[in-house]
Design brief:
Belongs to the Rab GDI family. This is Guanosine nucleotide diphosphate dissociation inhibitor. GO terms for molecular function: Rab GDP-dissociation inhibitor activity. One of its GO terms (cellular component) is cytoplasm. The structure is a single chain. The chain is an alpha/beta fold. It has 13 helices and 21 strands. The strands form five sheets. The chain has a seven-stranded mixed sheet with strand order 9-8-17-18-19-16-20. β2, α1 and β3 form a beta-alpha-beta unit. The radius of gyration is 22 Å and the shape is globular. The two termini are about 45 Å apart.
């Protein structure tokens, strides 16, 4: 291992694997090391044996759950927007050729104790119980404005300066009710709390536009989301394969690896007597004690079920967002569900997740509103994880550290962190405009 590298990457979580792949494509000499003997780190997908080792002390899984090899249970469950940045990264790197995607069946939102499908087209919007008849007209005007809006074309702005106007004022301009604001802000724009209301409207309008563009990316989509067959564990492995194609070197099962510093600057890693030097070190927070702070905790429940989530039209895959106001919380709650149709569970089994940012010391009670939507479960596991972020940007000490994974069940915040890390490491933005996301096939 006594070699010189352009970059050393620690941990095989999705963020680290994407960075490793991007730097390798940039013709950088990359060494990628993980203390674990599997890919994925905190964002791994586990089989039944690994799941029971992690949560039940290695107890045997009930035979009724089916074969161990049929399971790929995501520890950080997330869907990707069909027109979003992760799909564009997959295209930019050509990693898409290693993966198969399946469209997600539905996007739902909780309103007044009931879950409602977020309308996927005009006819669904007309039938939706989310809004009354007059509110639907007002909402239609808002959505037409958003769909037509182009930052570079003032004619589409209708005299509104969205860089100065708050989102609350834009809602008021279109006379949208509080309930409509709630589902637009949380189920379409995917904000995690209501802080966005007092901020400039432009970012939210662009987020709603992304939702619409993702929904219309493929004919007949019932949601804007895609999900890879065999689970999210396929993503880090696909980027690792990409890095290897471009000459990246991988070393798993290295439990004693440490960052090597000289005068407070990272200059490589040591692993026992072995040393590998590099210009910079990238990694997840667990490799950089003293250089990160805890900014919160996420609690996730994982449930194995023998049925789809009730009131979701027997869907094999759904996202349900529970906006903060609907549950009396300060932050949103998320329900994610996929099934054997995605090759992540045994025949006729569904896997559901409920996740949120912890606000009390009672994780099970916090998840109660989401768990109540699932119906009977065969097995349930609950985990609390700290979310860390770096204290500095890496420019002084050459340590480029990813943030922990938040409670959201979509990839937008994850990819924003990756792109920010790439910009800090290379000094330039990653150009994701060259390829059309329609090139990604979804079944």
């Amino acid at each position: 291992m006594n070699e010189e590298y352009d970059a050393i990457v620690l941990g095989t979580g999705l963020k680290e694997c994407i960075i490793s792949g991007l730097l390798s494509v940039d013709k950088k000499k990359v060494l990628h090391v993980d203390r674990n003997n599997y890919y994925g780190g905190e964002s791994a997908s586990l089989n039944l044996t690994q799941l029971y080792e992690r949560f039940r002390g290695g107890a045997a899984a009930p035979a009724t759950l089916g074969a161990n090899r049929d399971y790929n249970v995501d520890m950080v469950p997330k869907f990707m927007m069909a027109n979003g940045k992760l799909v564009r990264v997959l295209l930019h790197t050509d990693v898409v050729k290693y993966l198969e995607f399946k469209a997600v069946d539905g996007s739902y939102v909780l309103q007044k104790g009931k879950i409602h499908k977020v309308p996927a087209n005009d006819s669904e919007a007309l039938k939706s119980a989310l809004m009354g008849i007059f509110e639907k007209r007002r909402a239609r005007n808002f959505f037409l404005y958003v769909q037509d809006y182009e930052e570079a074309d003032p004619k589409t702005h209708k005299g509104l300066d969205l860089t100065k106007m708050s989102m609350a004022d834009l809602y008021k301009y279109f006379d949208l009710s509080e309930d409509t604001q709630d589902f637009v802000g949380h189920a379409l724009a995917l904000h995690r709390d209501d802080a966005y209301l007092t901020q400039p409207a432009l970012p939210t309008v662009l987020k709603v536009k992304l939702y619409h563009d993702s929904l219309s990316r493929y004919e007949g989509l019932n949601s804007p989301y895609l999900y890879p067959r065999y689970g999210l564990g396929e993503l880090p492995q696909a980027f690792a394969r990409l890095s290897a194609v471009y000459g990246g070197t991988y070393m798993l099962n290295q439990p004693n690896v440490e960052v090597l510093y000289e005068n407070g600057v990272a200059v490589g890693i040591k692993n026992g007597a072995d040393v590998a030097r590099s210009k910079l070190v990238v990694g997840d927070p667990s490799y950089f004690p003293g250089k990160v702070r805890v900014v919160g905790k996420v609690v996730r429940a994982m449930a194995i079920m023998s049925h789809p989530i009730p009131n979701t039209d027997n869907a094999h895959s759904v996202q349900i967002i529970l906006p903060q106001k609907q549950t009396g919380r300060r932050s949103d709650m998320y329900v994610f569900c996929c099934s054997y149709a995605h090759n992540v569970a045994s025949k006729d089994k569904w896997i559901a997740f409920v996740s949120t940012t912890m606000e009390t010391t009672n994780p099970q009670a916090e998840l109660a509103p989401g768990l109540a939507l699932l119906g009977p479960v065969d097995e349930q596991f609950i985990e609390v994880r700290e979310v860390c972020e770096p204290l500095e940007d890496g420019s002084k000490d050459q340590c480029y550290i990813s943030k922990g994974y938040d409670a959201t069940t979509h990839f937008e915040t994850t990819v924003e962190d990756v792109l920010d890390m790439y910009r800090r490491i290379t000094g330039r933005e990653l150009d994701l405009t060259a390829k059309d996301p329609a090139q990604v096939e979804a079944q």
